[in-house]
Amino acid sequence: MSTGPAITVAEVSKTFRLPRQRYSTLKERALHPLRSRAVDELRALDDVSITIPRGEFFGIVGRNGSGKSTLLKCLAGIYDADHGTIAVDGKLSPFIELGVGFNLDLTARDNVLINAILLGLSRREARERFDEIIAFAELEEFLDLKLKNYSSGMHVRLAFAVATQADADVLLIDEVLAVGDAAFQQKCFEQFRTLREAGRTIVLVTHDMQAVERFCDRAMLIERGRVLEVGDPHAIARAYNEINFGHLAHNSPDGARYGDHTAAEITAAWFEDAAGERVEALAQGEPLRIAIEVRFHEALDEPIFGLTLRNQDGHSIFSTRTDYRGVSTGRYEAGAVMTMRVSLDNWLAPSTYRLTPSIARAGAGSDALDLREDLAWLTVHGTGNSGGVFDAPHEIEIDRR
Q: 376-386 as b/e, with b when 16 or more CB fall inside 10 Å?
């Protein structure tokens, strides 16, 4: 491989022709020969250009229908671009449809060997890595069970375990881990980190802004097939919120604000000490409570409350939501005022932290009613700093032999 970029996309465009009248059978076409055969054109990608250096973890975000998956399929060679050029330097492995090529009537044992060979491994390499694949998927007890009897989660685990064994230089990932449980998703991300440390290039398409901020070196926001912004993951996440949650309401000293605020609004947020007093500074190790005040203008059932703490560098240090914690928030009538408090052990490293609270309608949490960036600030002070972002109490033991 050269020392140049892993992926180069230059002025790529892709258009789909969608017939206004669809025929499902030959009989329908014969019976209605004069029906309109007009088509609509959908511009999925419009003059997209991006260069991704070797070894970078790169995120692609955007709303449904923005062109993210189309771009990934063009990179994978599934679609041909109408205009522009795409260059991928190195062996490529697309994680776009995990398990494509699996035979449901064969056992996991047979499918692992067959698909490992299809991914480019030799027969010998496939046999040598078989135990590692099965161990990663945690399916040792189900080796001789036909895949048609697997659950969807087991199917995904097996497919991902096989796919990561391909000796690829560039990995394309399109939300394929959304169906996995939390423990397996974390395991997969650890595998991605290992691959990146080995010099692999990873391109991730996702709606999960926390994953973007946590793992990506850079990110790109795409909307209606056009690239809006490329840069720091936190800045891209904020821009995604602006597009996904509505127009930017205002820019105040507290930061950006999203949502229409007609049904409910966040009126205040602050930090408290153990005595319940509002504070702007707190010693490391002292109990910490985060408070959010919400006023309701319409009746709402089970709204979702959330918050994120970021440090001075813009990294998300702590985040929680009521639906993630299984908390029932109840029903609120118009005019009601609610205060939510989150208590935690304050082992944050000495630094200044910014609080972003949010409220959304019941559901997936994507219908934001109000999200206020950097609404409150807290300075955590201490006598020392380990250099990390979290200084948990711990003991060090040395056993000299």
A: bebebebeeee
pLDDT at 325 over 90: no
What's the pLDDT score for residue 370?
92
Cα–Cα distance measured from residue 18 to residue 38, given in angstroms and rounded to the nearest whole number: 9
With CA atoms as reference, report the closest residue to 309 among 266, 352, 277, 369. 352
> Measured between alpha carbons, how far is 97 from 95 in angstroms, rounded to an integer?
6
Which residue has tokens 């711990």? 394
CB 329 within 8 A of CB 302: yes
Is the pLDDT at 353 greater than 50? The verdict is yes
Q: Are 164 and 172 in contact (CB under 8 A)?
A: no
Burial of 34 by CB count in 10 Å (0-12 exposed, 13-18 middle, 19+ buried)? Answer: exposed
Roughly what angle, to the nearest 10 degrees, separates helices 152-163 and 130-137?
140
Question: Taking each helix axis from N to C terminus, what angle separates 152-163 and 108-118, rounded to the nearest 10 degrees?
Answer: 40
Please state the length of the chain: 401
Q: What percent of the chain has pLDDT over 90?
A: 37
Cβ-count burial 37-47 (b if 16+ within 10 Å, e if not): eeeeeeebbbe
Side chain identity at residue 378, one-letter code: L
Residue whose structure tokens are 């041909």: 80
pLDDT over 80 (residue 166)? no
Q: Which of 356, 314, 307 is nearest to 214 (CA)?
A: 314
pLDDT digits (tens, 9 = 90+) for 90-124: 888 887 766 667 888 999 889 899 888 887 788 89
Kindly report the pTM of this predicted structure: 0.62
The CA-atom distances, in angstroms, between 348 and each of 108, 375, 387 are 45, 19, 11
26-35, 41-50, 53-62, 230-239: least confident range: 26-35
pLDDT at 159: 84
Tell me what the mean pLDDT of segment 44-52 comes to.
94
Neighbours of 258 (CB within 10 A): 22
Tokens of 299: 């009746």
